[in-house]
């Protein structure tokens, strides 16, 4: 069985509004339980927390409702070979995407 070890987060910045792509490797979680995602403007866009590589929690500042959402993904969902939309849970507008480039 082949396991995907890379994914990409495409996220809108809650500060400047720009959409940028962020490549994430499973190896970034080696020795760390979290990876922070920064915008080109310097603001933190999101933090991904690994729960023993079984679950991944995306902490994201919402550009729509201006609160922090925590979006859970199973390892299969997070490292999947298909694109997943990341939505604001309050108004179901897109905050970004997760998946292969």
Folded structure, characterized:
The protein has 101 residues and is mainly beta. It has one helix at 75-78, and strands at residues 6-12, 19-25, 34-38, 44-51, 55-61, 68-74, 84-87, 94-99. Helices cover 4% and strands 50% of the residues. It is globular. The protein starts with 5 loop residues before the first strand and ends with a strand. The mean pLDDT is 91.
Counting DSSP E segments of at least 2 residues, the number of strands comes to 8
Oligomeric description of these chains: single chain
Number of domains: 1
Report the structural category.
Answer: mainly beta
The overall average pLDDT, rounded, is 91
**Rg of Cα set:** 13 Å
Tell me the series of helices and strands, N- to C-terminal: EEEEEEHEE
Give the spatial strand order of the biggest sheet: 2-1-8-7
Distance between the termini: 22 Å
Q: What's the main sheet like?
A: 4 strands, antiparallel
Tally of separate helices: 1
Fraction of residues in H or I helices? under 10%
Uncertain stretches of 5 or more adjacent residues: none
- From the spread of the alpha carbons, the general shape counts as globular
Beta-strand residue fraction: over 45%
Short descriptors:
mainly beta, four-stranded antiparallel β-sheet, 1 helix, about 5% helix
Helix-strand layout with pairing:
Layout: E1 6-12, E2 19-25, E3 34-38, E4 44-51, E5 55-61, E6 68-74, H1 75-78, E7 84-87, E8 94-99
Antiparallel strand pairs: 1-2, 1-8, 3-4, 4-5, 5-6, 7-8
């Amino acid at each position: 069985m082949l396991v995907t070890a890379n994914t990409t987060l495409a996220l809108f910045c809650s500060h400047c509004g720009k959409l940028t792509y962020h490549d994430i490797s499973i190896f970034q979680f080696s020795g760390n339980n979290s990876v922070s995602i920064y915008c080109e403007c310097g603001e933190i866009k999101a933090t991904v927390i690994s729960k023993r590589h079984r679950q991944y929690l995306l902490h994201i500042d919402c550009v729509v409702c201006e609160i922090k959402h925590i979006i859970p993904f199973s390892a299969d969902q997070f490292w999947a070979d298909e694109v997943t939309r990341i939505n604001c849970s309050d108004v179901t507008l897109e905050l970004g995407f997760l998946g292969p480039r």
